[in-house]
Amino acid sequence: MTKQNAKIVSAQGRKTNLMIMDVHKDQIPSTFALLGTSAGKKVAIRITGGCKGMSDDDKQEMLDFFSREFKGYSGLLWSGGTRSVNKDGTLDPMVTDIPGLIANQNPTCVALGTTPRTDNLSLQGESTLVLDESGTIPNPSMSGILLIQDGPEKGMDWDGDLDIYFQMMDNWKKYAAFEAIGTISWNGGGITRKEIERSIKNGWPTIVISGTGRASDDIANELKEGTLEVPDNHQLITVNKNTDGELRNKLIEFGFIDED
């Protein structure tokens, strides 16, 4: 895997807009919502999951997979807004790096992120904004990140942004004429499962990438075995990570990508 400086801003326009809102007091910043509507195609996909237990080769395979399957994507693509940094300052790729990667390869795609404030913020090193004691930083490959807090001092759990981002997805559909909204999962743990189940309940297209481990494989296996409770109007499907073109075909079918 080619090493890259994790702290270089690579977002479109070489600027990442960082906005903060209080989950109890503030409205969702209109500036952030408008960033989403600037996408070339009025569709939105939330990428959820994680990379626990994955090797460097696995992570590169993940990035290559999404790069191929999302070729020509011109909608909004978003995820959590964090980035993981190795001790030498290089990028440790995560699911949260997928939106920025796709946006850099497809000029009219917009990459955004949301992140709960789980700890006190601090400046470290060469004035790098750090979100927690693990050295997590805001992801500079995104055009905008919405940091969600519960008051000025109280830390939130890592699922603290779920209500806000689900509300934003609904708002884009209802008020900004988005044609389709949906969710894709890769690997992931307990929070990812919450997101998948909530997406299914909402009746959104929900694509679980099987063969990636943990929550995504659990959901895929339960669906196959008939032990997963799903509503009648569910749009949950599974796609195997080793089948080229399968995800792309589903994205076309659901209206997220125009046919070649």
Task: Summarize the structure in words.
- The protein is α/β, with parallel strands linked by helices and 260 residues long.
- Helices cover 29% and strands 25% of the residues.
- The strands form 3 sheets. Strands 1-10-6-3-2-11-12-13 form an 8-stranded parallel sheet.
- The longest helix is centred in the N-terminal third of the chain and has 14 residues, at 56-69.
- The chain is globular.
SSE order and pairing:
Blueprint: E1 17-22, H1 30-37, E2 43-49, H2 56-69, E3 76-80, E4 82-85, E5 91-92, H3 98-105, E6 110-116, E7 122-124, E8 128-130, E9 137-138, E10 144-149, H4 162-175, E11 180-186, H5 190-201, E12 205-210, H6 214-225, E13 235-240, H7 246-253
Parallel strand pairs: 1-10, 2-3, 2-11, 3-6, 6-10, 11-12, 12-13
Antiparallel strand pairs: 4-5, 4-9, 7-8
Q: How is this structure best summarized?
A:
With 260 residues, this protein is an alpha/beta fold.
Unreliable spans are none
Strand order of the largest sheet: 1-10-6-3-2-11-12-13
Strand count, sense and barrel status of the largest sheet are: 8 strands, parallel
What is the SS-derived class? alpha/beta
Strand content: 15-25%
Supply Rg.
Answer: 17 Å
Gross morphology: globular
Q: What's the helix count?
A: 7
Strand tally is: 13
| Helical percentage | 25-40%
Order of helices and strands: EHEHEEEHEEEEEHEHEHEH
Distance between the termini: 30 Å
**What is the mean predicted local confidence, pLDDT?**
94
Q: What descriptive keywords fit this protein?
A:
260 residues; three-stranded antiparallel β-sheet; alpha/beta
